[in-house]
Amino acid sequence: MSRTARIGLRSRSAEHRFLIVLLVLAAGVRLAAVPWGFPLLLHPDEWAVVDSAVEMARRNSFEPQLFLRPDHLEIKLSYVAFAFYASFVVGAPIEVAFDADPLPFYAMSRLVTVLFGVSAVALGYVVGRMFSPATAKLAAIFIAFFPPLVTNSVYATPDVPLAFVLLAVTYACMRYLSTPGWKPAAWAGALVGVGITIKYPAALAGLAVALVIAWNAVQQRGVRDFLRDAAASFSAMVLAVLVISPVLVTNFTGVREALERESRSTHLGADQLGFWGNLLFYGESFARSAGILLSVGAIAGVVLLVRRRLSIGLPISLGLIFVIAMSALPLHWERWGIPAWPMVLVVAAVAFAAFVESRNQRLRRCGVAVVAVSVTFLVLSSIQQVLMLRSVDTRLESQEWATRNGLTPTNTVFEGYSPFRPGSPATLFSHFEVRDDGTLVPLRPEATQYVVLSSAMYGRFEAEPERYKEQVNFYDKVAAQYQRIATFESTHDLRSTDLLELSIPTVAFDLARWVASAEREKVGPTIEIYKVPHEDQLE
Questions:
Q1: Burial of residue 497 (number of CB atoms within 10 Å: 0-12, 13-18, 19+)
Q2: Beta bridge partners of 433
Q3: What angle, rounded to 10 degrees, do the helices at 223-244 and 182-198 form?
Q4: Three-state DSSP class for 250?
Q5: What is the band of 511 on the pLDDT scale with cuts at 50, 70, 90?
Q6: How crowded is the C-beta side of 519, counted as CA atoms within 13 Å?
Q7: Which pairing describes strands 483-488 and 527-531: parallel, antiparallel, or unpaired?
Q8: E strands, 94-248, where?
Q9: Can you give the pTM of this predicted structure?
Q10: Which residues cross the membrane (predicted)?
Q11: Looking at residue 1, what is its pLDDT?
């Protein structure tokens, strides 16, 4: 073996060791947070995956009947995991085992998401390798420790699985540009179909595939090739949907109704921004998690790709297409931007790698320093998120207090995200009336001995006091007329992360204090519990 071959072999071996270590670390931070919230079920959307998989078992069917997002790929993967667990561990049917203890089933569905999240790290490395070895390593590190990707990798929700699939579409498009043909075009289309079975907006990836095929046709001046590749891509997309979830095609009425329901224009705390406001919202959401340096790096990466005319980077425009499309919707949620962030992180890695690999020694040193600061910020922020997910939630603490003090769902009026309804929204205004003198009176006094409020609900109204004057006035009356007997608040009040990279020393100190503390920190919404006086005591 020649000296050059030996060097190349050692280099590849070192890259493999790097990737294995990184994947282990990425899996570790995600697995540590899988028990989040237990024994309570705190996430408002996980039921769509878990309950649907169990419902399939009750019907003895492999076709989901829920079309919300539609989540069908995750539902079916969860079903397979449930069947294995129920058969070989519990020794009972899925539905029987679930009714006895639902927590293991939620944990298994979360593990499915963890698998997608860790796989996205490896895929980010492969995509980055299309540019350079340094880009590959940086992209993988950024994806491994980007806080929203870490946090959402432990929820049984579709955002991280979709992020993985869109990144896979990006890679398939890159391969198509490298070696054009109907086969890579078909792979790209099939991946779009897989994405659609996870979440409907994955259809936007079809635009990126069409853009890449059209770009290649213009460069090669091949109309026939364009028609062939476009047909192969579209056919593969439809075939993938039919293979994974044919009910999405055969029951189009259910799909249409779900799309109409999900495209509503109003939602408490998530509307009224408009297109430019939504676009700014997603930009700020990314910047808060990525930090200033990484955000600037993403912009610099776009400029670098354009200046160098690197057509291989064209598929990464899928990230921009996705964010723009999400901004055009009436509502906005931070999690809606998650599928685009791996591609943005790859672009930032391109810019950082250009500095690290620069022939100019000063630029190279500067690049290494910038990378060190950014990675430190991401790692500390991710650890902080995991510790918060492992902390005691105020809803659990207040539920235990309520049990000790005789509060039950039958003698208490409560709103959503509170001890008696910890994982879903709900209001309580309809349980009361306001007399002419301004007194707040319960409609059913015998069932309203206590009132439980949650900042996860009243905070949304108070954030828009002009729009929700009546609701804010209701909360003011509760505070003024009823006796507050207990309050449960988060003990983690750190705000230094608002300063992004400048907060690194403070965050490190906070984490050290948190780990060393004998008493577990408490996180979650503020829970306020009020005693309702007898009617003759109301004024």
A1: buried
A2: 441
A3: 40
A4: helix
A5: confident
A6: 5
A7: antiparallel
A8: none
A9: 0.91
A10: 77-98, 110-128, 134-155, 162-178, 198-218, 230-249, 286-306, 313-333, 339-356, 368-389
A11: 53
| Burial status of residue 307 (CB atoms within 10 A of its CB: 0-12, 13-18, 19 or more) | exposed
DSSP result, 272-321: S-HHHHHHHHHHHHHHHHH-HHHHHHHHHHHHHHHHTT-GGGGGGHHHHH
66: pLDDT confidence band, cut at 50, 70 and 90?
Answer: confident
The Cα angle at residue 302 between residues 299 and 304, in degrees rounded to 5: 110
Q: Three-class SS of residue 392?
A: strand
Per-residue pLDDT tens digits for 72-109: 999 999 999 999 999 999 999 999 999 999 999 999 99
* Antiparallel, parallel or unpaired: β 450-454 and 527-531: antiparallel
Predicted confidence at residue 318, as pLDDT, reads 82
Q: Would you call the peptide bond into 201 cis, given omega within 30 degrees of 0 as the criterion?
A: no
State the pLDDT confidence band at 326, using cuts at 50, 70 and 90.
confident
In contact, 175 and 57? CB cutoff 8 Å? no
Indicate the pairing of strand 440-442 with strand 392-393: unpaired
Least confident residue range of 274-288, 435-449, 525-539: 525-539
Cβ neighbours around 47 below 10 Å, total: 17
Question: Per-residue pLDDT tens for 357-387?
Answer: 888 888 888 888 989 999 999 999 899 889 8
- Rounded-to-integer distance, Cα 164 and Cα 32, Å: 21
Q: Of 517, 458, 451, 527, whose CA–CA distance to 482 is shortest? A: 451
> Beta strands of 342-437 (E only): which ranges?
392-393, 412-414, 432-434
Q: Which residues of 511-536 are buried (b: 16+ CB within 10 A; e: fewer)?
A: beebeeeeeebbbbbbbbbbebeeee
Q: Reduced to 3 DSSP states, what percent helix, strand and coil does the chain have, rounded to the nearest 5?
A: 70, 5, 25
What is the predicted pLDDT for the residue at 13? 78
Token reading at 311: 């057509």
Q: Closest by alpha carbon to 196, among 161, 151, 171? A: 161
| DSSP, residue by residue, 32-98 | TTTTTTTTS---SSTHHHHHHHHHHHHHT-SS----SSB-HHHHHHHHHHHHHHIIIII-S-HHHHH
- 70 beta partners: 199
Q: Are 402 and 440 in contact (CB under 8 A)?
A: no
Would you state the structure tokens that stand for residue 469, as one six-digit string? 């004057």
Check the CA dihedral 381-382-383-385 and report its sign. Answer: positive
